[in-house]
Amino acid sequence: MGMSTRGLGRAEGAVLVTNEEISRDLDTTPEWIKTRTGILSRRFAAEKETTSTMGAAAAARALAHAAVRDVDLTICCTMTPDYQSMPSTAALIQGELGLSGGAMDLNVACSGWVYGLVVANGLLQSRAVKRVLLVGADKTSCLTDPRDRSTRVLFGDGAGAAVLEYVEAPGEFVASDLGNDPSLSHLLFVPAGGSACPIGPEELANRSNYLQMAGREVFRAAVRVVVETCKAVLAKAGLSVSDVDFFIPHQANVRIVSYAAEKLGFPPEKVITNVDRYGNTSAASIPIALTEAWEDGRVKAGDRLLFCGFGAGMSWGSVLMEWSLEK
Ligand code: COA
């Protein structure tokens, strides 16, 4: 009576942008980016790529791997929908792939994937749906200011997807923990473009349609909430760090990941990181990291996996799973 993963897929933005390349247009250096973030390169979407095209590419791979064509619900976790309000990006992915069933977006910024897992699990467990296509996709390069060195170098574009199914067996989902602190919502913030402040000439002039970030404060809060939420989910499951085979956190900065992993007591070989090659792909970062680690044979059926996300809101969440998908 639970949720089981049937297929995985990933798709990254087509354009490789190295630290050397991004440093040509900004007051920064490849060395600064590498030492402060661990990022060596990122992928940006090509001109015609959007959140939905990357999401559909990742989803097509997950569906092909699962060898299924029909799903009851497509969920797209994203903070960068193709269109500001409608239609949903999930609807566009559904159209691109010729799928039927329901479609909806879920915006919890960089925590999107873990929230998506919790929502999908709940809907499957309640038998409201039998099969969910969960997509995490973001084209962050349209949200970061090309002139702002403090955010532009950190983010990248991509998508990851999973086909999740109800099974008459215990399933993979063990426990979850979700949280949000609205008093920290100003730390990661896009002031203009929503109903509170539509974009006009003034917003374009002061560039408030782009992401504003208090980097140092986000860093401190991120390490704290990752440690807290991971401890909380382990406590709910009655397990400890030594029971976990792989820690797969949101990929924002290698220093956030290593500080949090160290405080939790994870040895480096149990921590999956790929931020060096992709930067922060927001809702796509965990499914891309998971899919890579599963493709290269590190993550295997029988492994216990701890996923942890954090981002704007300030939101966070973690999910503990007992992995069952064979390669
Ligand atoms: N190149 C050179 N200098 C840069 C820079 C860049 N790309 N970006 C920022 N700086 C400068 C700042 O202007 C600031 O200068 P100042 O001290 O003269 O004001 C200084 O570097 C920042 O220093 P500090 O805050 O000590 O750097 P840091 O070691 O904390 O690294 C971040 C900065 C942004 C990389 C780091 O704080 C971080 O990763 N924060 C979390 C961001 C994040 O993950 N956001 C998404 C969450 S989902």
Would you mind describing this structure in some detail?
The protein folds into two domains: 2-167, Peroxisomal Thiolase, Chain A, domain 1, CATH 3.40.47; 173-322, Thiolase/Chalcone synthase (Peroxisomal Thiolase, Chain A, domain 1), CATH 3.40.47. The chain is built from eleven helices and 13 strands. The protein has helices at 19-23, 30-37, 51-66, 89-97, 112-125, 149-152, 201-206, 215-237, 254-264, 275-278, 285-295, and strands at 2-12, 15-18, 41-44, 73-77, 102-106, 131-139, 157-167, 173-180, 188-189, 212-213, 246-249, 304-311, 315-322. The strands form four sheets. A five-stranded mixed beta sheet has the order 1-7-6-4-5, sandwiched between helices. Strands 8-13-12-11 form a four-stranded mixed beta sheet, sandwiched between helices. Helix 4 links the parallel strand 4 and strand 5. The longest helix is centred in the C-terminal third of the chain and has 23 residues, at 215-237. It is globular, with a radius of gyration of 19 Å. The site of coenzyme A (COA) has 20 residues, from helix 2, helix 6, helix 8 and strand 12.
Radius of gyration, taken over Cα atoms and rounded to an integer in Å:
19 Å
Bound molecules: coenzyme A
Please work out how many helical segments DSSP would assign.
11
Q: How many beta-strand segments? A: 13
Largest sheet, spatial ordering of strands:
1-7-6-4-5
Please describe the biggest sheet, giving its number of strands, its sense, and whether it closes into a barrel. Answer: 5 strands, mixed
Estimate the helix proportion, in percent: 25-40%
Give the CA-based shape.
globular
The CA-CA distance between the termini, in Å, is 23 Å
Task: Summarize the helix and strand pattern as letters.
Answer: EEHHEHEHEHEHEEEHEHEHHHEE
| Average pLDDT rating | 97
CATH superfamily of the largest domain: Thiolase/Chalcone synthase
CATH topology of the largest domain: Peroxisomal Thiolase, Chain A, domain 1
CATH class of the largest domain equals Alpha Beta
Number of domains: 2
- Tell me the structural class: alpha/beta
Task: Enumerate the spans where pLDDT stays under 50 for 5 or more consecutive residues.
Answer: none
The amount of beta strand, in percent, is 15-25%
Supply the CATH architecture of the largest domain.
3-Layer(aba) Sandwich
